[in-house]
Amino acid sequence: MAEARNGVAIVTGASRGIGRATAIRLAADFAAVTLVARDAGGLDTAATAIRAAGAEALPLPRDLREPDAAKRVVGQTIDRFGRIDALVNVAGAVPQTDLFAMTDSEWDDGLSLKFHGARRLTLAAWDALKQSRGAVVLTSGATALAPKASLAAVATINAAISALAKAFSERGVSEGVQVNSVLPGPVLTDRRRAMVAKFATAHSLSAEDAMQQFAVQAGISRFGRPEEIAELIAFLVSPVARWMTGAAVRMDGGEATAI
């Protein structure tokens, strides 16, 4: 993998949450960052922060559910920067719907972005990553380790992503591409804040009390921060982590206790 400040990283889901935090964090280690998400305004804001950190930024408003979006992202990145050294797949929101209530269309939508979007983008970037001996991270989630009926789609799709990363890593060993997955637990993103606010309203609680109840129920002392997951990802795509491949790395404040 290229030395720090010489490489190019692609980060999806980069307009908010973990993706945004990761894109900004990688500006300290890479010369350029391509940012991908559907929210053009959010991408522009993140791109400004990346440039302020001293790296080039290429914001690409794209919907990775579209079958040709991955090739377009890779093509535009190569055209602009000439290489790809790291790919971080974060994009994807899966419906928080009970197993017995979730429709086929909800299943398809959850898979289309988080699973298939990441799969297509990793395939599209693979040749460039082979040339740079680069690194890939796929974002799964700690729910993959403890599926529940109330969050069946989240857990199932996250488990599939971890398996997909392991499959890519097996090919990567012989072709010089490092692949790992990260399994974040409850991280305080905008989406998580909205969930807490909904819970607070339904149970006549303050936002602070609702947040504390969520943490207690999860068996953690507090929610994680996007920046903490970003630091983990930055480590995984750094030269010092080069021998680490095929790993599913959990960072969840101790929520998952069985594994």
Structure characteristics:
259 residues, 2 domains, Rossmann fold, alpha/beta, 7-stranded parallel sheet, single chain
Task: Give a structural overview.
By secondary structure, the chain is of the alpha/beta class. The mean pLDDT is 90. It has 2 domains: 8-185 and 225-244, Rossmann fold, CATH 3.40.50.720; 188-223. The chain has a 7-stranded parallel sheet with strand order 3-2-1-4-5-6-7, sandwiched between helices. It is globular and about 55 Å long. The protein is built from 8 helices and 7 strands.
Briefly, what is this?
The protein is α/β, with parallel strands linked by helices. It is built from 8 helices and 7 strands, in the order E-H-E-H-E-H-E-H-E-H-E-H-H-H-E.
Number of domains: 2
Under the CATH scheme, which architecture of the largest domain would be assigned? 3-Layer(aba) Sandwich
Using the coordinates shown, work out and report the CATH topology of the largest domain. Rossmann fold
User: Which CATH class of the largest domain?
Assistant: Alpha Beta
Layout of helices and strands:
Elements: E1 8-12, H1 17-26, E2 32-37, H2 40-52, E3 56-61, H3 69-81, E4 86-89, H4 104-132, E5 135-139, H5 152-175, E6 178-184, H6 190-202, H7 207-218, H8 226-236, E7 248-251
Parallel strand pairs: 1-2, 1-4, 2-3, 4-5, 5-6, 6-7
